[in-house]
From TrEMBL:
GO process annotations (BP): DNA repair; error-prone translesion synthesis; SOS response
Record family assignment: Belongs to the DNA polymerase type-Y family.
Pfam family, one: IMS
One MF term in the entry's GO annotations: DNA-directed DNA polymerase activity
Superkingdom to which the source organism belongs: Bacteria
Domain UmuC per the UniProt entry, residue ranges: 2-145
Coiled-coil ranges (or none): none
Any one of the GO CC terms: cytosol
Listed name of the protein: ImpB/mucB/samB family protein
Lineage, uppermost ranks: Bacteria, Pseudomonadati, Pseudomonadota, Gammaproteobacteria, Oceanospirillales
Amino acid sequence: MIGLIDCNNFYVSCERVFQPRLEGLPVGVLSNNDGCVIARSNELKALGVEMGTPAFELKALLRQGRIHLLSSNYELYGDMSARVQSVLEEFSAGVEPYSIDEMFVRFDGFGHDQLLAHCRELHCKVRRFTGIPVSVGVAPTRTLALSVETQT
């Protein structure tokens, strides 16, 4: 079986690891030169802020203190991605990055119940050791694992 591990709201989650006061608040990460929103917390999504929204359109909400916007920090995101991969490698020798926040993991030799328990443990350990919440999709192929993960 193949698992797809997707780091939830990755850029925002990375920022929250080092700025825990942002947990539970509407947070957006801006593109290079702070032009537009490229990552959103669930709380910011709930306010209707779309991906790609220009930062200038959010100035009123920012001034009112209703949202928090951060400049992107790609060095941090690369480091946190490597940390997540390191934790995943404890669960499988077959870890393959798909993007900065998604990785395929081979799960060989597990029965259904064992696989479910293994995925739950993986989910908990990634969060505990990195601070990053993840979703896990498991299927016989990579394409199906991608499809399953996007539905969860």
